[in-house]
Amino acid sequence: MNSLQYKDLLINFTTEFVPVWNDKGTRAEKPVTFWRPSTSSDALGGFISLGDVAVAGYHNINQLKIVAVVSEVDRENGTALRAPDDFERVWEHSGPRHRTAVSIWRPIAPEGYVALGLVCGVGNEKPPRNTIRCVREDLTTRAYIDQLIWSDKGSGADRDFSAWGISTPQSLPGEAYLAPGTFTGIEGFAKPTGQSSVHALRLDLTLHAQPLPPLPTVMDPENLTPFHENDGTHVCELPWFTVRDPELIPLEQLQNCPIYRLQRKDQYTLVVTGQNPTLTSKTFSWAVAKGEVDTHSVGLRSLTGVNLVAEWLPRHPLSASARLSPDFTHTGLSAKGWGQTSVLDLIAYVPANQSVGAYLVRSEYKLLRADGSQLGETLSYVNGDNVYFSEFLQSQAAIPALVVREEVAPLTENNLEITPHDFIDDTLLP
């Protein structure tokens, strides 16, 4: 697959591993195998591991587990990665029952860099410094200690040790976070405290946006259409690990659909028109619907994990979190519109012998695989944050008026007059 890029860091994935050590014969209460991610394939030339992997049990994880590996965008002069300055020993398996010696080491990162996992040593020797890479701190985010993977309780080792997973924090809007699949650990059996320094990788959710074109200021009532389309679409790219695909296992997603496209197409929707054929100005007011046209966003979240109103955790083999930009999901002011429809009050002053139409932006969202096939239903959302008014040409043809309430206003001037109170957004109306 093509690598994911965040600033000057490249992120890819491996499904190949080399076994380092397992606890067979130690009589530990639970089994474990430590593996080293392999980047020997041609597709991963130049990539390197962020740490070893601890997996409960003795089964072969090749082609079953997926972990992240990294590389520089600029492999000659890049600064995204650095080898650790040194290692400090966290644990060694020694004691009357030890069959083969093994030790576990914490990388000591250079200043401005962080380590994202622990490394096993063969015997009691330090791992070579080029075994892994540390990542520049601004390319990562602080993470959390996850569930217990293994402890050596019952093994008879001279020193106690426990290995723990790493989970991602809550994502900021427009970002995704990824725990690379490595582990952390401490001497002892108690869960590490909140002060433990663990990190995850970060990514921008790439957004390709098109500006909304201007609405024509004067419309012909004889050629009136309910929609005025935008020629462009907005696309947010979602890495495969942020989407739960019911038809593909994670390995198939990685190989066949590394990027999903959440597509948004906008169009102006004519919601009401008002005609004033009299010699005096009038105040027109309407009540129109805004928000999600249906409840398909709930179904999309249930099917794929993708949430349009908040952060989501896709429940993937890799620990990840993501959150869409509020500009992309119309949630910059309020997220109340998703999953429900509410009422928007519009008010406009229409001069004598003038007609006006009010438009809202209606957006349609589709989640697409790389081959163009769609996941879930198309979502429709009417955005009430902004109202667009257009004057209509006077004509003998009748203009359909959807007036809800009409009041006579004092005569002002011959031009269409829109005041700051032309629309009122009252989401508390039933």
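The record above closes out task 2.4. Task 2.5 opens with a second protein, given below.
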Amino acid sequence: MDLKGKTVLITGGRRVGSALALMLADRGANVALTYHTSRRAIEQTAGEVEARGVGSLAVGADLSDADQAHAAVDKVVERFGRLDALVNMASVFRRTPFRSLASADFDAMIAANLAAPYHSAVAAGQQMLTQSSDSESNLKGKIVNVGDWSTERPYKDYLPYIVAKGGLTTMTLALAVELAPDVAVTMVQPAMIDPPPTLTPEEHAAVIAATPLKRAGTPGDANRMILYLLEGTDYATGACYRVDGGRFLGVDPIGDA
């Protein structure tokens, strides 16, 4: 897929998503970003996108609500005429020790990390199916979900988060079947890219020690994989790609901290 002139919707454009938006803009893509509570940050990124000479749009929505997710996609199509790619990046990561788990923890993690990307992907996929195919790729669109490496080797104190992200992995596989051959659906599963504020310096050091490549990831590490799935190949669907520095191979220290 040649990204020049295409339209990409990123859910959650802070930090890693903001960096991706600028990378896409540098390739000539129009970029739409959603926000729920971070309007100022998203609008700032949208302004930086426009400064690169392409179109941008900031859309406020609670994507865990199906109607708002569909309305967000509709606004993108109204602005740009079509939607060529969706990157489901919005996520909430929070420690929830088992002994103090509450039902609200589950509800919050499912809403942010499964319901929101599900409704966004369904809305985007339904829109994409109505569009003409790209002349080069013969695809009508692409969806890239951002998951987590830990769903295949869970660690302690994040049960609702890992359950939600595991559901997102399953959704990626099922959606790839539903939308083939018109829309490609893939997943990127990063390890620690942007350390959560709850992580202590000691825990951060322990994570690095347990990572075979001995460093934390950068936004570019994850975003370059996303870009590859968008523009580097049109023959990947239903696949999940770990970008974790080898964390999957080591002993995770977070649960023991």
